[in-house]
Specification:
4 helices; alpha+beta; 26% strand
Length: 126
């Protein structure tokens, strides 16, 4: 069974940047060798509202759909979606001051990037 290198970032929802509190809401996995860039996400309304009762959960979901579009290279991802896959991952892993922020880049080896994405979502997002 061959294993290939991959990188990932955890997507964090930061309702109030001034409080530096966040909740993991998604994972982006990039595997250059497999031409793989995908996101999996899960939003828990109650947990987000515990951090900030005024949070616009629909806005959070819209931001995550934008990330889906960037990964897929389709119109949902705007101009960023038109770039090569490695540049799209670079865009997604760059620090941002929006409500959805990427954590640090991590890496590993996997025989199946899609299964690794599901595993990371289950372990890191819940």
């Amino acid at each position: 069974m061959s294993r290939i290198a991959y990188q990932y970032v955890v997507l964090r929802c930061v309702p109030r940047v001034d409080r530096e509190e966040f909740l993991n809401v998604g994972v982006v996995v990039y595997c250059q060798a497999a031409d793989f860039l995908r996101v999996a996400w899960q939003v828990d309304d109650g947990r987000l509202r515990a951090l900030d009762p005024r949070i616009d959960v629909d806005q959070v979901r819209d931001a995550l759909r934008f990330v889906e579009g960037v990964c897929a290279g389709d119109e949902r991802g705007g101009a960023a979606a038109g770039h090569p896959i490695g540049q799209r991952f670079g865009f997604l892993k760059a620090p941002k001051s929006t409500v959805i922020q990427p954590g640090p880049v991590h890496g590993g080896l996997t025989p199946d990037p899609d299964q690794q994405l599901a595993h990371l979502l289950a372990c890191l997002v819940g």
